[in-house]
Amino acid sequence: MKYLTIYEKTETGYSAYAPDLHGCIAGGFTFEETAELMRGAIKMHLETMRKDGDTIPEPSTRADYIDAPAA
């Protein structure tokens, strides 16, 4: 399964979250570090959900870029 991950630039680096996995977040100094940490966070999040007997949500969040008219 592939879960949409949102990356946001912060004052000190990047933060990331997966909207379909409530509470699954990561942060790092670089985009690459944050992406690697997020892969680990998703893996750990899903392992914990399975261990706790929780239902694993199907990926359902979608993203798109919308062209905005020039000002």
Structural description of this entry:
It is a single chain. This protein is α+β, with helices and mostly antiparallel strands and 71 residues long. It has a domain at 6-51. Helices cover 30% and strands 17% of the residues. The protein has one helix and three strands. It has one helix at 31-51, and strands at residues 6-9, 14-17, 25-28. It has a three-stranded antiparallel β-sheet, covered by helices on one side. Strand 1 (6-9) and strand 2 form a beta hairpin. The longest helix is centred in the middle third of the chain and has 21 residues, at 31-51. The relative contact order is 0.22. The model has no long low-confidence stretch (mean pLDDT 97).
